[in-house]
């Protein structure tokens, strides 16, 4: 599965995307973030405050408690600031 | 007719407005980069693919709700200087009420529903712009 990062989440993690294979016990986006936070100090810093994170599953915005079963792509990013 | 563009190119206001003239009323909103607090550069990051899809869905929703003849959303990405156009929203309908309301809906919802992130540079230091609660409030008034 492809994991994408944008804005300061991308900067903190240090890469814009990575290929990951989460364990079967990880089913929601929030669990995915918590699992990935253990990957490195940079990931831990990026995901330290889940309340400041937003997500999209296969390019559709979802709440963090949404599941991502079968998704090809999950994106993690800060609240959007366009317009 | 729906037109959605996400590009680094300068927004051609005259051409966008002229292309919307397909019925009795055209309304538009143009957002410019503000130079508040010494901002020298504003850079827009986006989520390619998801951005265009989100803007297309908003334009479709507005077209259906207000029976628009045409709707255009153009959003610039990449680095910009103060005074440059960052976003253009235009609507066309038989009468002004629908065109004006749909235009306000599009710019309000674009701020909360499309994956763009602003980074500003002040005195050589870059910082990510924080989302504003007032934008969420503005977006919810259309529910």
Task: Give the SSE layout.
The complex is a heterodimer of chains A (83) and B (143).
Chain A: E1 2-5, H1 7-13, E2 17-19, H2 29-37, H3 41-46, E3 54-57, E4 60-62, E5 73-77
Parallel strand pairs in A: 1-5
Antiparallel strand pairs in A: 1-2, 3-4, 3-5
Chain B: E1 2-7, H1 13-20, E2 25-32, E3 39-46, H2 50-66, E4 70-76, E5 78-80, E6 85-93, H3 96-113, E7 116-122, E8 125-128, H4 133-140
Parallel strand pairs in B: 1-4
Antiparallel strand pairs in B: 2-6, 3-5, 3-7, 4-6, 7-8
Helix pairs in contact in B: 2-3, 3-4
Search tags:
heterodimer, A: 83 residues, alpha+beta, Ubiquitin-like (UB roll), five-stranded mixed sheet, 3 helices, globular, B: 143 residues, Aldehyde Oxidoreductase, domain 3, four-stranded mixed sheet, four-stranded antiparallel sheet, 8 strands
3D structure, described in words:
The complex is a heterodimer of chains A (83) and B (143). Chain A is an alpha+beta fold and 83 residues long. Chain A is built from three helices and five strands; from the N terminus they run βαβααβββ. Chain A has a single domain (2-77), classed as Ubiquitin-like (UB roll). The longest helix of chain A has 9 residues, at 29-37. The model of chain A has no long low-confidence stretch (mean pLDDT 97). With 143 residues, chain B is α+β, with helices and mostly antiparallel strands. Chain B has a single domain, classed as Molybdopterin biosynthesis MoaE subunit (Aldehyde Oxidoreductase, domain 3, Alpha-Beta Complex). Chain B is built from four helices and eight strands; from the N terminus they run βαββαβββαββα. Chain B has helices at 13-20, 50-66, 96-113, 133-140, and strands at residues 2-7, 25-32, 39-46, 70-76, 78-80, 85-93, 116-122, 125-128. In chain B, the strands form two sheets. In chain B, strands 1-4-6-2 form a four-stranded mixed β-sheet, sandwiched between helices. A four-stranded antiparallel β-sheet of chain B has the order 5-3-7-8, with no helix packed on it. The mean pLDDT of chain B is 96. At the A-B interface, loops of A face β3, α2, α3 and β7 of B. Chain A: This is Molybdopterin converting factor subunit 1. Chain A: InterPro entries: Beta-grasp_dom_sf, Mopterin_synth/thiamin_S_b, ThiS/MoaD-like. Chain A: It holds the Pfam family ThiS. Chain B: Keywords: Molybdenum cofactor biosynthesis.
């Amino acid at each position: 599965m492809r994991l994408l990062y944008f804005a300061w989440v991308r900067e903190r993690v240090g890469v814009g995307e990575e290929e990951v294979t989460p364990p079967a016990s990880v089913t929601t986006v929030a669990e995915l973030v918590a699992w990935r936070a253990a990957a490195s100090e940079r990931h831990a810093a990026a995901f330290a405050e889940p309340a400041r994170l937003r997500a999209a599953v296969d390019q559709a915005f979802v709440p963090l408690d949404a599941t991502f079963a079968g998704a090809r792509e999950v994106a993690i990013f800060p609240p959007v600031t366009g317009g | 007719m729906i037109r959605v563009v996400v590009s680094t190119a300068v927004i051609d206001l005259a051409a966008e407005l002229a292309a919307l003239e397909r019925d009795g009323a055209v309304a538009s909103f143009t957002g410019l980069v503000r130079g508040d607090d010494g901002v020298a550069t504003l850079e827009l990051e986006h989520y390619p693919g998801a951005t265009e899809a989100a803007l297309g869905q908003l334009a479709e929703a507005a077209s259906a709700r207000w029976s628009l003849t045409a709707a255009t959303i153009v959003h610039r990405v990449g680095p910009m200087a103060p005074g440059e156009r960052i976003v253009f929203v235009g609507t066309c309908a038989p009468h002004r009420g629908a065109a004006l309301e749909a235009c306000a809906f599009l710019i309000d919802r674009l701020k909360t529903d499309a994956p763009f992130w602003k980074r500003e540079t002040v005195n050589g230091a870059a910082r990510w712009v924080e989302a504003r609660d007032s934008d969420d409030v503005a977006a919810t008034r259309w529910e």
